[in-house]
DNA sequence: CAGAATGGTTTCAATAAGCAACTCAATGAG
DNA sequence: CTCATTGAGTTGCTTATTGAAACCATTCTG
């Protein structure tokens, strides 16, 4: 794979999931989609593109086809790397709720297992201060 | 604009920034890019596509061209909606750092204004519990 | 003012995406 | 066991998006 910008983790991430469909596939996987047709019907993506994206996501280690118990078809499952996109999906969802709906337009909200609305996800410093783009910098090197 | 899936905030968000370049443009804007050529040189994007993306981001209210002090060219600036993508960029960056570099491959890290590494951003419940895709659900309606 | 740099636009070829129809293996119903 | 159904792709064709390079109009710089 030729990275757009090998030195930037954001660019590497968008190389993997920065297209019209990949994140929606991951979203649906988190929401219980397992089979090719699940994904196809939920997203409405063209089937040849879905084939391509599932392969690409598998190649990058975000999903894997696991053998199902006998008599059942094998299904797609998120790997740890795939599940680890959860914070990305949540922040995107919350951004969408705040900025992609017009004033007063109803939209869904994310709730936890106690029925409470999930508060806005914000980057925090080790001491708990909320951080912004002006209070963070990239250190290259590690 | 015809949304891919009007009912899903994630889909609306990817409709706005779910392409190869938009998030990198926003990343660079957060990192100080102001002019057309700034963006072009930092991302390496084709200029006609950059024109298109800047317009699209402006149309969606993520950036705006603001008049600069007299004798200076006008520059692009992030709006509040654009700045509000910060948590998305950070979670994407952290995901990239964890999963888009091979074992032992050096990569940059994000540090705060005290020089401390920014801890992984995770969705938290109101009571502070970390949340995952299995402990959250979407409630539609509000 | 002349030349360079900036901020685009236009054109055109290459690539990717979408759509419909087709295949082919694995279930499932009778 | 046989035939219909469903799942998981392929293939071929059409449209949309991207990219490279050339072109043009402002805006600076000296």
Q: Find the count of extended strands of chain A (DSSP E, 2+ residues).
A: 4
* CATH class descriptor of the domain at 9-87 in chain A: Mainly Alpha
Terminal CA distance of chain A = 22 Å
Mean pLDDT of chain A: 93
Explain what the structure shows:
Chain A has 142 residues and is α+β, with helices and mostly antiparallel strands. The first copy, chain A, has a domain at 9-87: Winged helix-like DNA-binding domain superfamily/Winged helix DNA-binding domain (Arc Repressor Mutant, subunit A). Chain A has 6 helices and 4 strands, in the order H-H-H-H-E-E-H-H-E-E. Chain A has helices spanning 9-17, 22-30, 36-43, 47-59, 80-83, 86-99, and strands spanning 63-66, 75-78, 109-112, 136-139. In chain A, strands 1-2 form a two-stranded antiparallel ribbon. In chain A, a hairpin with an 8-residue loop joins strand 1 and strand 2 (75-78). Chain A is globular, with a radius of gyration of 18 Å. Chain A starts with 8 loop residues before the first helix and ends with a strand. Chains A and B meet through helix 1, helix 2, helix 6, strand 3 and strand 4 of A and helix 1, helix 2, helix 6, strand 3 and strand 4 of B. Chain A binds a DNA duplex (30 and 30 nucleotides) through helix 3 and helix 4. Chains A, B: InterPro entries: ArsR-like_HTH (IPR011991), HTH_HxlR (IPR002577), WH-like_DNA-bd_sf (IPR036388), WH_DNA-bd_sf (IPR036390). Chains A, B: Keywords: DNA-binding, Transcription, Transcription regulation. Chains A, B: This is Helix-turn-helix domain-containing protein.
């Amino acid at each position: 794979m030729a990275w757009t910008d090998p030195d930037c983790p954001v660019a590497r991430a968008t190389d993997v999931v920065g297209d019209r469909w990949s994140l929606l596939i991951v979203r649906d996987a988190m929401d219980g989609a397992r089979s090719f047709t699940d994904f196809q019907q939920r997203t409405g993506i063209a089937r040849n593109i879905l084939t391509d994206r599932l392969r690409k996501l598998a190649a990058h280690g975000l999903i894997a086809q696991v053998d199902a118990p006998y008599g059942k078809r094998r299904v797609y499952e998120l790997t740890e790397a795939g599940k680890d996109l959860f914070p990305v999906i949540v922040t995107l969802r919350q951004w969408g709720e705040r900025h992609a709906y017009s004033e007063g337009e109803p939209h869904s909200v994310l709730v936890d297992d106690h029925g409470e609305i999930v508060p806005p996800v914000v980057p925090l410093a080790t001491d708990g201060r909320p951080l912004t783009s002006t209070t963070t910098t990239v250190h290259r090197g590690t």
